[in-house]
Design brief:
This protein has 346 residues and is an alpha+beta fold. Helices cover 44% and strands 14% of the residues. The chain is built from 14 helices and eight strands.
Length: 346
């Protein structure tokens, strides 16, 4: 199937692929933005965030000069916030090092923060017609099934084999690159899906190893299972009148740069915090809230505190601020914190 793969895929994409996504344009800025948003995020979620982001930052110059807090606020809820921080840094790099124009070559694009080989290849292919192959999760699934590649695709030897195969399959005509690259994405997302692939409408079905051998359920080989650790934290919901106290998190790490609720190891530490900062009441804790990250589960115990008066000598942390309950949920906060703030505002 090597020789016919590209021809089958591009013909299928032109008839059955997706053609109405808002980032299917020639503008490298919008292509780059969509590719970063689509990393580890479903299309339907990106369709909600992308228009708002483009409206606020219509080009790379507007994004580069914006405060990072504004970028994080618009990203709030989309997750994996290092993407937003890297997006901001990359925009500044495009302005400073490339004169405001995106580089056309994959290797130069890979220099941008947050842009790996597959993302750089997608930008080079869509925006500039370069013969570069992508290899995201959808493509790995298509290749492992079509060509019967065993082994977890996250392991280096398996991944390197897939890169070599993906390069061999590229169409010779650069004019076909946009349709071919979009076809890879579309086939993996809409036909060769993880759970129930629609093999009967797949353009590769007659030559697909997994379809022929009844192995679509076992390919690609799943990640070896490991126990995900659980962490616990106590979050302070401190209110004074119609305001809530939020802290700016450190610039790196989980939720880096976002506003969030102060965290403590135990509820007793919240009593100490109240004694230092004012008069009021520690109210009964709310039910635990679970938030799942890639590498661990976080169990949050929310503890509301109502401050009737602030101590004159209270020294609040420099990175903290009072925000109105109506504004706080949209101020660039992590998704679970937003849920807590919305409940608090009720």
């Amino acid at each position: 199937m090597h020789s016919s793969f590209a021809a089958r895929l591009t013909a299928w994409q032109k008839t059955h692929g997706r053609h109405d996504l808002p980032w299917q344009v020639s503008d490298p800025y919008r292509i780059w933005l969509s590719e970063i948003m689509l990393q580890q995020t479903q299309v339907k979620s990106v369709l909600e965030y992308y228009p708002r982001f483009v409206a606020r930052f219509p080009d790379v110059a507007a994004l580069a000069v914006a405060p990072q807090e504004d970028v994080l606020a618009l990203w709030s809820g989309l997750g994996y916030y290092s993407r937003a921080r890297n997006l901001h840094k990359a925009a500044q790099m495009v302005m400073a090092e490339f004169g405001g124009s995106f580089p056309t070559e994959r290797l130069q694009l890979e220099r941008l923060p947050g842009v790996g080989r597959s993302t750089a290849a997608a930008i080079a292919s869509f925006a500039f017609g370069q013969r570069e192959t992508i290899l995201d999760g959808n493509v790995k699934r298509v290749l492992s099934r079509c060509f019967g590649i065993d082994g977890f695709p996250g392991e280096k030897p398996v991944e390197q084999r897939m890169w070599r195969l993906a390069e061999e399959l590229l169409p010779r005509d650069a004019a076909l690159m946009s349709a071919y690259t979009q076809g890879l994405m579309d086939l993996g997302a809409t036909v060769c899906s993880r759970g129930k692939p629609a093999c009967t409408v797949c353009p590769m079905v007659d030559a697909c190893v997994a379809a022929r051998e009844g192995r679509t359920g076992e390919l690609p080989t799943p990640r070896p299972k490991k126990t995900v650790p659980t962490r616990h934290t106590v979050m302070l919901l401190a209110t004074h009148g119609d305001q809530v106290w939020l802290l700016r998190r450190p610039p790196t790490g989980i939720w880096g740069g976002l506003l969030s609720l102060p965290e403590f190891e135990t509820s007793l530490q919240i009593e100490d915090w109240l004694a230092r900062n004012g008069h009021g009441d520690v109210l009964p804790a709310w039910p635990e809230l679970e938030h799942v990250f890639t590498h661990y589960r976080l169990i949050i115990t929310p503890v509301p505190v109502r401050l009737d008066a602030l101590r004159a000598e209270a020294v609040m942390e420099d990175s903290g601020q009072w925000l109105s309950l109506s504004a706080a949920p949209d101020a660039g906060v992590p998704a679970p914190v937003r849920r807590l703030l919305l409940r608090l505002a009720e």
